[in-house]
Design brief:
The chain is of the alpha+beta class. The chain folds into 6 domains: about 1-225, Dna Ligase, domain 1; about 230-355, D-amino Acid Aminotransferase, Chain A, domain 1, CATH 3.30.470.20; about 370-495, no CATH class; about 585-720, no CATH class; about 750-790, no CATH class; about 805-915, Phosphohistidine domain (Glucose Oxidase, domain 1, 3-Layer(bba) Sandwich). Strand 14 (about 335-340) and strand 15 form a beta hairpin.
Length: about 900
């Protein structure tokens, strides 16, 4: 590599691994005797706990032969000895925990008073660090190494043990000091770096991430400070759209501090990683730059003639691209690199993983052409959370066998991917055809009408933006059909053909069809439970999980839907046509949709209200061992938040959410309003039917009046059953959970798992392979928890790594807009709630803002005044329940949980699909 030789000529401290070469003939000293200091080339990833993230990464880059300014790292042990020598442990412990009710900072940070207290404690602790004395043993080692380097001007950078790791983002939270000269300045900078471990931003971030405090350590990197003519940052993936085939490079004059601090607009290039071609270029007016001062650095104006001068020529851009590719190849992960140029030579001064990128889909088996993947569960179920590894297995294998109609299919289909614990399916082939894309643009595909509208917009957007690449491999229509058949197989066609008799039956015998669907589903569920009773050995249970129990849940839900479609969906459409034909006001139909009977979800919510009423009348508190709640859990205990993931504990295992919700009904007396409202809505619905019928009769359309009454009663009698397929399907999935839980207990008893619950964080193949699963389960659980923190979940991803979460709506004056889902207008305070278990902070009349909902959220709907969701379709669970409860709702509001803030007063218009911030 051409840069390696240049680096050796200008570096400091590039000694052999066991010692430090003397400068200008001085003797060599052995670094093996040093306890607190290591040369950068002497540390690597194995020394993370001692050198910190920054130090370890710099050492790894030196090992890779990359150009890195030489220097040394003061190890974490020095920080701990400094803290102990100056008696700072108690002060740090007092900072971490607020005295108020024993709550930790994660809760205390939510109040202004606690924020003020936190700032005061942090300021006081910073002063203690500054006044502290560095132990003589530490000073002695630092002195010796610094003297042997002839005391150059240096950069002193924090290097925390929790920094620069995949899954965390501490960029800019810890301190860096540039142009440090002499021992006095060096020791002052070292103490400031140590103190920055406890600055306000870092403490708040770590506590909100649930990261331990006292176990953290802080290293300090000391490097030669380059006299940079120009500096910049490289992302080895496009940070805006996530594309891994592109590199982002920026550059400005002078030291890089002005760019990092956002004080200058740098020149920016997006380059193709393989060809080196410039994808986009933006040359900025660079008015300021950072340069060395007598002490520290300063911001100075750039000469007028250089402000618009291009900072990097083609050769330099390609050299930086080569460096970026080499660093990423070595670390095997996209990198955020800081670089500097001195004397025409490029150096890398920092490397950290790019943590915000969405994980890549597993590579295609065919070639490197563009592939586009749809987030299936977000699209069909509004489910944005990651799945546990066991649930990923369930969906990948179950969907494969169900769609391919092959019971003994061993491997998941290659067109089903699971990056980030979410299920994606390859939809590339249909998007090659203008007919398909045109229907997506106009939202004219009937089969999509109960699916997430924003996802459909995203599909059209991505197809349009990549139209040239998609057309390159376009086949004739017969080629498309052949591709679908060879990839997916004839399973879907067979299933669709088999559904025709059910549709016919449902059209002419709607009540019988619904009853037939429910009877069929319970027969299948009972048969599954009977097979489960015969399981004896571990192998029996694994075989049951792998082969027998994967298809029934999908088969139950799919079969029920086809029997139910005609009575559930067509009756209201036919009624609307009659009303429209006679020019009647259709607004009364909204009343007909409310509080429909036979809805297992509505019945569940009503039962919780009634339990709260009875407990309140008896002056009792809600508790998990109360007979009323025990009875409720016997009926509904198989449900939970994220219930389509059977790796998530069920309510019967963790009843806290149900207990807290019922107690909140008691405390706020909302059960009275909820019960009265449900009964009132039922009465209004009946009156609306009678009124609409009477108006038709008044017009002389008696025959159509009777037909309308029949259709509306059919709708009310059957629409509630739309919740039943999922209700039974989740019970079938719970059977699978119980079997896996038994396997987990056996493996934990054998020592292969640390905890029985870890069974849901390994796959079936992992279990069958034998061996110790504890480390794998721990890593998978950690990754799962990281993904749970992701707020922007992509609806589509591509094989290039591009992740598309939403398409901007064209609204006036920046107004928040979405899809109208439930009519009505409500003004009230916003409450951001990411999981139903957080619902205790909701108050009567609040507007609930969240990413998505499922039936487990229904108890919260009984006290809110409005609903705003980032995902969802008009026929998804949340909007349907909102209409039943007469709650205004808007769905498909991009980044609503990030844009709106707790306590804001907004006006929600569920008919226009708008949200207006009032204060």
């Amino acid at each position: 590599m051409m840069w390696a030789s240049k680096y050796r000529d200008t570096s400091i401290g590039y000694g052999e691994r066991e010692g430090l070469e003397g400068i200008k003939g001085r003797e060599r000293i052995s670094m093996q005797e040093y306890r607190y200091v290591r040369l950068l080339e002497q540390v690597g990833k194995e020394d993370l706990a001692q050198a910190g993230g920054k130090g370890a990464n710099l050492g790894e880059m030196i090992r890779a032969g990359l150009p890195v300014p030489g220097g040394f790292v003061i190890l974490v042990e020095a920080y701990h000895d400094f803290v102990q020598a100056n008696g700072l442990e108690k002060e740090i412990e007092g900072l971490l925990f607020e005295a108020r009710s024993g709550n930790d900072i994660r809760e205390a940070l939510d109040t202004p008073d606690s924020q003020k207290t936190l700032k005061e404690k942090i300021s006081w602790l910073q002063e203690k660090f500054s006044a502290g004395q560095i132990p003589p043993d530490i000073e002695k080692e630092v002195d010796q190494v610094y003297e042997y380097l002839e005391e150059p001007r240096i950069a002193v950078r924090s290097s925390a043990t929790a920094e620069d790791l995949p899954g965390t983002s501490f960029a800019g939270q810890y301190s860096t000091y540039l142009n440090i000269s002499g021992k006095e300045e060096l020791y002052e900078a070292i103490k400031k770096c140590w103190a920055s471990l406890w600055n306000e931003r870092a403490v708040s971030y770590r506590e909100k991430q649930g990261m331990a405090g006292l176990k953290l350590g802080h290293g300090v990197v000391v490097q030669k400070l380059l006299s940079s003519e120009k500096s910049g940052i490289i992302f080895t993936a496009n940070p805006v759209n996530g594309r891994r085939d592109q590199v982002s490079i920026n550059c400005s004059w002078g030291l890089g501090e002005a760019i990092v601090g956002g004080q200058v607009d740098p020149d920016q290039w997006i380059m193709n990683k393989s060809s080196g071609e410039v994808v986009s270029e933006q040359i900025a007016v660079k008015r300021f730059m950072t340069v060395r001062n007598d002490r520290g650095v300063k911001l100075v104006p750039v000469e007028a003639g250089r402000q618009e001068e291009v900072t990097l020529d083609e050769k330099e851009r390609k050299e930086l691209l080569e460096l970026a590719v080499a660093a990423e190849k070595y670390f095997r992960f996209p990198q955020d690199l800081e670089w500097a140029c001195e004397g025409g030579v490029f150096y890398l001064v920092q490397a950290r993983p790019v943590t915000a990128l969405y994980p890549m889909p597993e590579p295609e088996e065919s070639n490197d052409e563009l592939r586009i993947y749809l987030n299936l569960l977000l699209y069909r179920n509004g489910f944005s959370a990651p799945l546990t590894p066991a649930a990923v297995d369930f969906f990948r294998n179950g969907l494969t066998r169900f769609l391919l109609n092959r019971r003994n299919q061993r491997r998941p289909a290659p067109w089903i991917k699971s990056p980030g614990g979410r299920i994606f399916v390859d939809i590339t082939e249909p998007l090659r055809y203008e007919t398909v894309v045109g229907r997506l643009r106009s939202y004219r595909i009937p089969a999509l009408m109960d699916s997430e509208p924003m996802t459909i917009k995203v599909m059209a957007h991505v197809a349009d933006r990549n139209s040239e690449a998609l057309k390159e491999n376009k086949n004739p229509l017969l080629g498309l059909l052949w591709s679908v058949v060879t990839k997916i197989g004839p399973g879907p066609l067979k299933l669709r053909i088999a559904s025709r008799p059910k549709l016919f039956y449902g059209k002419y015998f709607p009540y019988r069809s619904v009853n037939k669907a429910i009877a069929y589903a319970y027969n299948q569920l009972n048969a599954l439970k009977e097979r489960r009773k015969k399981l004896k050995t571990l192998d029996d249970k694994l075989k049951f999980v792998e082969e027998e129990s994967l298809t029934p849940p999908f088969k139950i839900g799919y079969s029920m839907i086809w029997w139910m479609i005609p009575p559930l969906l067509t009756s209201l459409e036919r009624a609307e046509k009659i009303i429209g034909k006679h020019s009647l006001d259709t607004s009364e139909l909204e009343k007909v949709k409310r509080a429909v009977p036979n809805s297992v979800t509505t019945e569940m919510g009503l039962e919780m209200l009634q339990i709260a009423k009875r407990l309140d009348q008896a002056d009792a508190k809600a508790s998990a061992d109360h007979p009323e709640i025990i009875g409720f859990l016997e009926k509904y205990g198989h449900r939970s938040s994220e219930e389509i993931d059977f790796g998530v504990p069920r309510w019967k295992e963790q009843p806290g959410y149900i207990v807290d919700t019922i107690q909140s009904y008691i405390d706020q007396k909302t059960y009275r309003k909820g019960i009265d409202k449900l009964h009132r809505d039922q009465e209004e619905a009946e009156r609306a039917i009678e009124h609409l019928t009477a108006r038709l009769e008044d017009k002389g359309a008696s025959r159509e009046a009777r037909k309308l009454q029949k259709l509306l009663r059919l709708f009310r009698d059957t629409f509630g059953y739309r919740e039943m397929p999922k209700f039974i399907m989740v019970q079938a999935m719970n059977v699978l959970r119980e079997v896996l839980a038994e396997v987990g207990k056996e493996l934990a008893a054998e020592g292969r798992l640390k905890d029985p619950g870890d069974i849901f964080f390994v796959g079936i193949e992992d279990i069958k392979a034998g061996g110790d699963l504890r480390e794998k389960a721990a890593c998978n659980r950690e990754e799962y928890l990281r993904e749970m923190q992701r707020t922007n979940v992509p609806r589509l991803i591509t094989s290039y790594g591009e992740a598309v979460c939403a398409v901007a709506d064209e609204g006036e004056d920046g107004a928040l807009r979405g899809i109208p889902a439930s009519a009505g207008i409500h003004e009230g305070p916003v409450k951001i709630v990411m999981r139903p278990e957080e619902g205790r902070k909701l108050r009567d009349g609040d507007i609930l803002v969240t990413m998505s909902t499922d039936p487990s959220w229904t108890p919260l709907f009984l006290k809110i005044g409005g609903l705003i969701m980032e995902t969802g379709a008009t026929l998804a669970h949340g909007p349907v329940v909102a209409r039943e409860y007469n709650i205004p709702a808007v769905v498909g509001v991009g980044n609503a949980t990030g844009t709106l803030k707790d306590g804001q007063i907004v006006r929600l218009n569920g008919e226009a699909g708008t949200i207006e911030v009032l204060s």
